[in-house]
Design goal:
6-stranded parallel sheet, two-stranded antiparallel ribbon
Length: 216
């Protein structure tokens, strides 16, 4: 029986790198697994960089699974949708960047008029607040229609649980919450949960019949 051929593309989070894709190769035997070594630091750069890469991958004739971590998921949702991606697995995704930026502004004691006037403000906690970034996020609300599963840690310090739950309801995503998990899945227990979640959400994909078999 001929089966659908899948490939997976991994998008790292802030401070990560494409080499993290190696971890998923062991979880997806027989798949082509690639880490996208993107350079984008802003949503407008992601919209310019991601689309050509994913459209080229799509031309290879396989179905495409996106595995994206943290801000990698946010950039993906800014740049891609159903024409480029068949399924998605999001790990600790940033699903509401406007909310995150506003929280950072509050933490830094920065008001909107101040940020608008100054353009950029460096904070004591290492982030640079940008008026252009905030405006871009507001002008490009997420419209995501790809069938998606989300893995979220209840101790995530970036995205409140209710925000992720609301996003899952709005998009129809399947949400799995690891109690006491963190934004960064890295401990042995957290990685065991992550690995089991990836396997559970991909087990049926490689066994899908081709379009021709479905028609027959």
């Amino acid at each position: 029986m001929q089966q659908v051929q899948w490939q997976a593309i991994y998008l790292h989070g802030k401070g990560g790198n494409a080499r993290e894709a190696e971890h998923y190769r062991a979880l997806l035997p027989g798949w082509r697994v690639t880490g996208f070594d993107y350079r984008a630091q802003t949503p407008w750069e992601a919209r310019e960089e991601f689309l050509p890469y994913f459209e080229a991958a799509r031309r290879e004739g396989t179905k495409l699974l996106l595995i994206a971590n943290s801000i990698g998921a946010f950039f993906a949702m800014q740049a891609l949708d159903e024409p480029q991606v068949d399924r998605a697995l999001f790990i600790s995704p940033v699903v509401d960047m406007e909310q995150l930026i506003e929280a950072m502004m509050a933490g830094a004691g920065v008001t909107e008029p101040e940020l608008r006037q100054r353009g950029e403000i460096k904070t004591e906690f290492g982030e640079t607040l940008s008026w252009r970034y905030l405006q871009d996020v507001r002008q490009h609300p997420i419209q995501w229609r790809v069938p998606t599963a989300i893995l979220y840690g209840s101790g995530d310090a970036l995205m409140p649980r209710e925000t992720v739950e609301a996003f899952a309801r709005r998009t129809g995503a399947a949400l799995t919450v690891m109690e006491n998990g963190e934004h960064w899945f890295h401990t042995e227990e957290q990685m065991q949960v992550l690995d089991g979640w990836v396997r559970a959400n991909t087990a049926e994909l490689a066994a899908e019949p081709t379009e021709r078999e479905v028609m027959d």
